[in-house]
Amino acid sequence: MNKFLKLAITAMAALCMWACVDNANLNKPTNSNANANSNATASKAAPTVDALMALEKQANEAYMKGDGQFFQGYLSDKFVMNEGGKRYSKDESVKMISGVKCDSKSQTLDEPKLSMIDADTYAVVYKNTTEGTCTYQGQTEQMKDPMRSATVWTRNGDKWLAVWHGETKIIDPKNPPKAGSPMASPAAKSSSNSSTSNSNSSANSNANSNSNSNASATSDPSVDAMVAVEKSGWEAWKSRDAAKFDPILTSNVAFVDLFGNYTGPKADVIKGWTSSPCEIKSTSVSDTSGEMLSPTAGVITFKGSADGTCENMKIQPVWGTSFYVKEGDAWKLAFGFENPA
Questions:
Q1: Which pLDDT tens digit goes with each residue over 218-252?
Q2: Burial annotation 69-85 (CB, 10 A radius, 16+ → b, else e)
Q3: The whole model's pTM is what?
Q4: Domains present along the chain, CATH in parentheses
Q5: Which of 70, 79, 108, 323 stands 20 to 30 A from 289 (CA)?
């Protein structure tokens, strides 16, 4: 299989188990995530995690059939996906879905988490285990590995639209895939329950999204501001300085690292990024880009790396996605997600 096909298959995998939103259900107030949704007003009720998960399962049926048209009404025009360092737009994603056919023997979506980015933007994160096969451009591969999947939804009038989706394979950090082996099969999902050391390696990428970037300077000052905060977070991670994280994270921040670990809220995220011993000489971030979802919410994607070790394990480079919100005059990280680079 050529390199392009592998990249396309990986990107398709990140869209399997997609969420399709029933807006009537999503506008009901949630009971299980009252703390995360405390800032949502009655007129802007939060989506429920149960409604999102039920519709994630429903939409997967469309994916398995290669029904790309189904997703035209459920992806935001600002939809972006960062797979293997390539940003996929709505049109590119729909085109890929239209070319895939899958046969699923079994499917389990569990461990759901709902995290508020702001009153109009929510992330749902869950574990996805599917057994079966997917075929794309004549190539058939197996789905078998559990994945950590996440979708970010944004409110558009009376509708909820998906603005981003990502998946990362569950990996034991002490037994990572060997070089040259595929990280995920064509419809493999990403998920993981690794130890604190995973969270440290991942903290790498979620804190440094534009230091040493080779990308051209952005024209949006808000994107520049998010990038600056990302860089300061990497420096805080490098120095293991919990106090520096406090002003740059939202109170209900959530994070998925490159091993598939989910961490949240704020106190747990900071603990994960500062508690394990790391020796880091330098960090760098490249391939950074971003866009605004609203005047007070935006997303940046990047490649992050560091020269060093955590718990005697060499730090792996990552492809990262970070969602920020503006609180007063300060931009703060609200949700982060990583894939091994």
A1: 579 999 999 999 999 988 999 999 999 999 999 99
A2: ebbeebbbebbbbbbbe
A3: 0.78
A4: 3-169 (3.10.450.50), 196-340 (3.10.450.50)
A5: 70
